[in-house]
Sequence to fold (398 residues):
Amino acid sequence: MRNLPEPDMPIDLRTLLIALAINLLTMAVSLPLVMGRISAPARRAQEGAALQAAGWVFILVSGLMERGGAADRLFSTLAMVAFALSVALLATAFELWSGRAGRVRAQWLLALAMPLGYTIGFAHYPFRVGWANGLLGAQMLLVVATMARAAPQPVGRWRWLVVLSLSLHAAVTLARGVLGAFFTESYPRFLSPHPVNYTAAVVALVTSMLTVLGILLAHRDEAARALERLATVDGLTDVLNRRAWLERARTLLDAGRRRGVPMAVLMFDIDRFKQINDTLGHDAGDRALCLVAQQLGAAAGAADLVGRYGGEEFCVLLAEGDDANAARFDARLRERLAAASQAELGFVIGYSAGVSRCRGGPDSLDAMLRRADAALYRAKDAGRDRTLDTGFGVLQVA
Fold:
């Protein structure tokens, strides 16, 4: 049998865009199911993905309307709103996942200006194409510039997926803007079967998948950090728990011993804490613990290590722990705690404490804690509201 020539079946652009819209809608619906427990950046990312899908749906609907008519103007403007808001929301999500504050004012200004200028200049085709694509490309490049910078916290390789994805998408978007604004006669309409439109559709399909992959990896990193935090941070007071404090304190103590830096441990117990719980309730006790932890963090130096040792007991490893510095820290903490507790809780919180300095050589953290604990209980027996050193002398400021 003679082989018949295969029919020529060019890819229809509208079909390609419908596939893109369906793909994005599927991703937008799937993200909340896959990501599970929601967080602020995850919520922004999901909203951004949903708006990206909506934007392509509006574009397709506008293509069914009379060109230049009211319906075409409405749906194409809605598409621009969706696209601009989508980039701003994704920028906010990626900022938060990078450990930044998530304040992307320039993004929101562009997200407002882009659709506003588009609908005002709708009748002038070169302007609206150049304006919309130019500002949308600028939004994407702002995200790229932010993600390429060093972040305040460790960020996984997902950020380079985002950089790659948005760089490609921005390049195509800006190219369309230049063609539409300055070479209007050779620039095709959005749904025209032209290489520019095919390229833009394929790039949008690829970059949307890369962006969603970046979202999922960023969310995974966030979940891993949350698990690590649960393992190391006390859930109530937000300071290191006992296990994590002991682990890090041993490391810091060893490093300080090698450098010959004087280090000390201050262990303290909130005075009459049971009475607070019994008379004012456990909620008041929890607030007292949180206030103590907050004031500890404020009084401690950047190199000091604060942890909740258990119950109403806290420990601080003082990186500069000679007698004078330990006494100044103790005085500073007592002053801050007395003022803050009276103002916020209506009563003054006091504590009993013991201080133990590293004696060098084979002296270990466990030995220092035993000495500090003995001084602490001697302070309680002596009437509370005082700090004793390992010789059971009252700590005085030099």
